Every structure is written in C-alpha cells, then in structure tokens.
Amino acid sequence: MPRYVIERNFAEKLEVDDDAKKHIKQVNDAEGVEWIFSFLSADKRKTYCLYEAPDEDSLRRAAERLNIPADVITPVDRIDPGIFA
C-alpha cells in the first residue's frame, strides 16, 4: 500500500487522550488508512505523520472527519542505511 507523510500545523498544543485515540482509529479504519507513527515538534504544534493509505483523498477525508489539519500530504518511499551497504 502507498505511504504518505502528512504535515499538520495546530493552532494549540496537541493533546490526545485515550478516547481521542479510539476515535482516530475508528475513522482511519473506516477510510482504509493506517497511522504508522508521528513525530511531534517540541512546542507540540506541528506533527509529521506517516500513513499507509490507498490514496491522498482517503487521508483528506479522514482528516476532515477528525477535524484535524492535513496541510501537506507527500507520497513517500522507504529507504534506510542498508541500501548504501
């Protein structure tokens, strides 16, 4: 499945409780996307999230349903140091 990085900018510090995590999972499952992991900036106002999804539209629909930004969606491929060995 294709992978994407989503850059999200938040007006307030990001805080996610257990109920929010469950809701995120339910919406993502319904849209066919899988949140793999995220990096959170030190000020807790920006994230870079790695997802697997069928397409960008499914990521945008999930973000809209969750009322969270999806400022930049970038298709990515995985590389790691092993390719240089």
Automatic annotation (TrEMBL):
InterPro entries: SCO4226, SCO4226-like. It comes from the Bacteria. This is DUF4242 domain-containing protein. It comes from Roseovarius marisflavi.
